[in-house]
## 1
Amino acid sequence: MINLLLDNVVLASLLALIGLGGMFGGLLGYAAEKFKINSDPVIDTIDELLPQTQCGQCGFPGCRPYAQSIADGDAINKCPPGGQTTINAIAKLLDITAVPLDEEHGQEELRTIAYIREDECIGCTKCIQACPVDAILGSAKLMHTVIEKECTGCDLCVDPCPVDCIDMLPVKTSIDTWYWPSPENIPPSTTSAYTEGHAS
Amino acid sequence: MRHLWETPGGVHPPDNKAQSQTMSIGQVPLPKTLILPLNSAFDEVAKASVRIGDRVLKGQKIADIQGKLSVAVHASSSGFVTSIEPRTIAHPSGLSTPCIEITTDGEDRWIESKTYPHYQHIDPPKLCDIIAQAGIAGMGGAGFPSAVKLAIDGEKSVDTLIINATECEPYITADDMLIRERAAEIIKGIDVINCALNKPKAVLIGIENNKPDAIKALQEHCKGTQIEVVPVPTKYPSGGEKQLIYILTGKELPSEALPINIGMICLNIATVFAIKRAVIDGQPLISRITTITGQACDINRNYEVLIGTSVEHLLKLNGFNRERCSRLIVGGPMMGFTLSSTNVPVTKTSTCILAVSHQEMPDSSPPQPCIRCGLCAEVCPASLLPQQLYWYAKAADHERLQAHHLFDCIECGACSYVCPSKIPLVQHYRGSKGDILTARAEKTMASKARERFESRAVRLEKIDSQRETKRESRKLTSNNAEQQRVSGKPPLTTSAEDIIKAAQLRVQTKKISPEKQKAKLERTLIAAQIRLEEAQQRLADVLESGTVDQQTQHKATLEGAKQKVDKTQQRLAKIKLQ
């Protein structure tokens, strides 16, 4: 056998190549099974960039389905809560050109939070069922209230309310959340002088 | 002589300190109202423990610590609580925060308080608690609760205590005057802190060499103690915590680390004084030394000011001229911020009220384009690249900003100070820092929202499937009942559902544990044996007096009973074997 192979170089190399091919093929096949990824990692990464308001303004039932759809080639400008920042981030991730927000799905607005006018609440629990992140507390015939920290401002509780007692109010800047605005946004007279470079 | 290290960069702005040092520390006439903010510098609000209308005495605690980083608040004078509501405070935002307003009664009567002259015998945790209850927060400007800094948990240890008396900002002389007049008390305060920290190996007082009188006073009182007074060269910003640590010890603080991580604690000298008053004299932090200076004031002087005194009140006392004033600044000219209203209270961190004239600081002209001169990089004490940071800040490139260590910027303002194009560099950095922190917070919020949304989906699915099974079983029973009513017979169990159910039932019975099965078989065996005996009895009766038919019938019954007993015994034996 060995003699035959030594004599016949073509056969030997053929056999060796087939053997190697089979071995590596087997290894790759095993690895593909062993390290299989069930969901597309791109979807997760896109989902990370979306604001998770779960508002459905994009026409999908939540942020993840929209992320899935983007991965499948849908437009990236359907998310008003995320606004241009999100569009830019997704465009950068997918290496495509950033486009302006599609006005059809809504406008980029200030972040709001739902407030229930508690005197008027009749305790119907309809808003509780509508809230995608379980941020409303209350039970039947008892007053409901919004957990401010958890509210994503998705607007979904406003429509179901039969007595129209939910207001979407913009988030107020308190002394704790305030930070210095960039110089483009402020009149220069409100900052200290030397930090602006004007000393006597 | 101690070896000193030199920090990179730094600037030498005109120090303008002499004008406020001509007079000793003055006393301020008692104001009619005092406004005491409840918030600390770290987003936490103390809990008011008094109600409107309550009479309070000087030094009485009116708000308790709530959360780790809030600071207790005390009444600065006796009087009545007249309101608890949001008020504008001395803050760059000009926003309001909950405050307690006290209308003073003029008596200025102290509350009886506990003093601890023998602090050496108190445990460190107890000392920290006394300091916390006295409402002491860093008085150099940041306002970090001192007790939190001093409360060292077991794993960490402090080998160097650094007292910051550099006071490197121009105009401010509050610490200088405090040292000159009250050095003895300060040294006692250091001793209290030494006890709280279990005697660190070295105690260093860093002080800039432009304060010869203060250095002399400290050196006199430090004779015979382990405390070392270290005069450092005058250069702004040598008073930054990181900078001072480097100058004195040559150790560089890692990015985003605290001094405690390298075994050090850094305290402002005014804080040390406040700690002495709190522990030894039982006086909580209700006053501080504040410099009132600037050419728009006729008198430039340091005052011992009650916390909560309005800036208006202080300015009136010093002949403030609004016409002459171009800008009213709290803190120094390098790092301070402009006040939008004079009706704000002095807080624990107000080192200086600076009313500059138009000559001192003319109104700013618009910034010119960057000419890439590189002066900013030369003066940066943190060795950053201010120019690069500026471009990235303008482009809102958060990743690159962080890669260029934006968060190591101490916002000292040296770069803006030297910029020939008058670009407000620090403002750009502050804005970008805020944007990045907000983006981070939003990211955490988004992931929390995602988690809540997903767990809600799981919950809803579970409820749905439960409902579905319930509905199915109800449907089945109602169908069965219907069929039974119609046909009068038990229903045929032929639907796929039923077959599955029956199969499930069989599997269930099979799953009975061997012990249970054994017990069941034993019971069956006993019952079978009893039946066998009865059958034998009855057969005997029938054999005596009965027809042939009856005899055969009973014989068959007996045979059946016998078989049952045998079968059960066999199964039992099988189970026992298993």
Note: The CA atoms of residues 443 and 449 of chain B lie 10 Å apart.
## 2
Amino acid sequence: MPERRTIVIDPVTRIEGHSKITIHVDEHGRVEDARFHVTQFRGFEKFCEGRPFSEMPSLMARICGICPVSHLIASAKACDALLAVKIPPAAEKLRRIFGLAQVLQSHALSLFHLSSPDLLLGMDADPAKSNLFGVLEAHPELARDGIALRKFGQQIIERLGGKRVHPAWVVPGGVSDPLKQEDRDAILRDVPEALAITLRTIAWLKGILEHFREEITSFGNFPSLFMGTVKADGGLTFYDGKLRIVGASGAIVADGLDPARYSDFLGEKVESWSYLKSAYYKPKGFPDGMYRVGPLARLNVADKCGTLRADQELAEFHELQRTAVLSSFHYHQARLIEILYCVERLEQLLTDPETLSTHVRAIARPNALEGVGSAEAPRGTLFHHYKIDEQGLVRWANLIIATGQNNLAMNRSVLQVAERYVHGDKLTHGVLNRVEAVIRAYDPCLSCSTHALGQMALKIQLIASDGRVLDEVARP
Amino acid sequence: MSKPRLATVWLDGCSGCHMSFLDMDERLIELADKVELVYSPLVDAKQFPAEVDITLVEGAVSSEEDLHKIRLIRRRSKTLVSLGDCAITANVPAMRNPFPVQAVYDRAYLENATLAPSVPTEIVPKLLPYARPVHEVVSVDVYIPGCPPSADVIHFALTELLEGRHPQLSAKTRFGA
């Protein structure tokens, strides 16, 4: 006797944060709806109140241990606006290097440590082996490459900032200390290996795409807007620029948007069933203003990367689809192309003698009572917005984080995958893992997005409308 | 003889301690030979298993779910380790403690929202009135301070624990390190 039921995947694993997925199935066995629920909340926007603005970069970095550098940079840029100073050119270059190193390490984490088990061992692999250690057994060279590439990024952060996670080096007005020549040289010595790893991983990923045709078709493959920051020449950037929005056809919808005026064109809706708000592009309204951010979006909006090898890969990437590249499965490839850009751009910046300058910080008292800072974090555009009083104490803060901007698309993607793969009363690991894998493609950082993080025990059940458990999967 | 069973858990933290764990880099490969990682955000095991030898806990106890989880984890772990300053002192999560929970919710979901301003209540776990250190809720066997503790410190502590010794960390790390 067919019945309506709800499937719960709790928690979603191998992502950065704590969430669950519910899938509602009607009496005919058809998926009616699916939702991605984020289940933590910490409240940074409130508890920073009353604290000196100069504490903000180090405090806000504690939102996230995966991309603390992005928070440091966006926060310090908001503080630069409060000081109303232009930071020294060397400081800007050093912050760029810092940001690139972090995008690289975070992307490596997403691809190798979290998603590679799905890509290498398959979506239907034994869940006991579907992890980095399983990859180490089955494909040790790829797992070692992942560890080495992430280490390359983390070591740059350590050499510049003194420690790998939560360095206090980025400050209002610039950075606290100049780059030492021996550290610069040490980083440059590691570039060739990082480049070699990146190139062979790109070749591997492109080689396996054909095994995932079905997933590519159903993993968040739908029209939406895409938003990212571009330089004045339309090139890819992670540090500074104007926002550009393109539509599904690839045509520009809005260009030259000032990130400081984000609230003019971006809105956030609260859903009663998630701590993660859903951002939307105001001129199109809700939910038509759904847009995606992060690697896929950045490569859809940018005219070019601006480095040789990354531009070659970008050209090939655009051949995937004549319009904007729509399938969220391609976040993986976009992430790798961005890693390639990071390696090339790091080398360019580090060979610029100005990065060794000792003029790295502008000192000033606050000269404005409100400031916005933005940056491209690994997962997309990040905004920090502060208001202070005459004493420099924070009175109000608003943060818009990348993952919230993908929330509408992630929910739509979960539904699309569920509609494609979930049928009847029987659940399999492979089916449920695909529902999770589409979330992994977005590499959501729930720590960031709700400014909190967690993890808990699993239950996947098919529950009939009368409450009877029709099927249950307990992962070991 | 089967390998010791290791688990890692995130409560209310930033994942920085887990990133520091991954910063052991190549030493992760040796670790994989010495222990079995039976539960962690990095693996797909979803149910916290029985009879875990060592559990590393990152983060403070901040929501009803954290509270439920940590009690279960304590019952199932032989050695429970508070990893990092948030687990040990509640640190950054505790910065919300001077504010009423409602005020913390209101900032995010009423003041800083464009559409449907309201505090989420379905499915999501409620925040407790205060974020608290792990040892205020369950007994803790080992403390590893730092924000986060470095990969070297985590590696040292795990090696000592696997050798059956209580790690002496006072010369190696400190609060805020």
Note: Residues 5-97+129-162 of chain B form a domain with the Rossmann fold fold (CATH 3.40.50.700).
